[in-house]
Amino acid sequence: MRRCGMTSRRWGVEIERHNVRLLLSEAHRRADKWLVRSPDGLVRVVWDAAPVWASAEGVLYESPEAMATAGAVPGGENGGKAYVPVPELVTAPVEGTG
User: Fold this and answer.
1) Is 50 exceeded by the pLDDT of residue 4?
2) How many angstroms from the chain centroid is the CA of residue 58?
3) Which helix (H) or strand (E) is 69 found in, with range?
4) What is the full DSSP assignment across 9-38?
5) What's the average model confidence in pLDDT over 7-23?
6) What is the residue range of 50's domain?
7) φ, ψ for residue 46 (rounded to 5)?
8) Taking the alpha carbons of 27, 55, 50, 20 in that order, is the dihedral positive or negative?
9) 3-state DSSP helix/strand/coil percent for the chain, to nearest 5?
10) Cα(83)–Cα(77) distance, rounded to whole angstroms?
11) pLDDT tens digit string along 39-52?
12) Domain count, the chain
C-alpha cells in the first residue's frame, strides 16, 4: 500500500503486474497513463514502466542475476536492461486508521 500524502490518513493500493506485458502505440506512451477505469471511478488501470533484462536472443528476464543463472548473454546496451510497459491497478484513496 502506498500512503497518499505525508500527513494524510488516506490510503490507496497500487499493484503492478510484472508477468503481463502491454503493447502500446507511441501515442499511448505519450498520452495520459490511465488505460481504463471502473464506472464509479474508484479503480483505474494505468501503465507503468518496469525494468527487464533482455538476452541477445530476445528472452526477457526479471533481473541480471536471473539472466546469468540461465546462462544467457546480455543483448543491446546497458547490459540488456530495458523498460517495458506493465499494467498497474490503482484504487482511490480511502480513510484509514494508520
Assistant:
1) no
2) 20
3) helix 64-69
4) -EEE-EEE-TT------HHHHHS-SEEEE-
5) 72
6) 2-95
7) -120, 170
8) positive
9) 15, 40, 45
10) 12
11) 998 898 988 888 99
12) 1
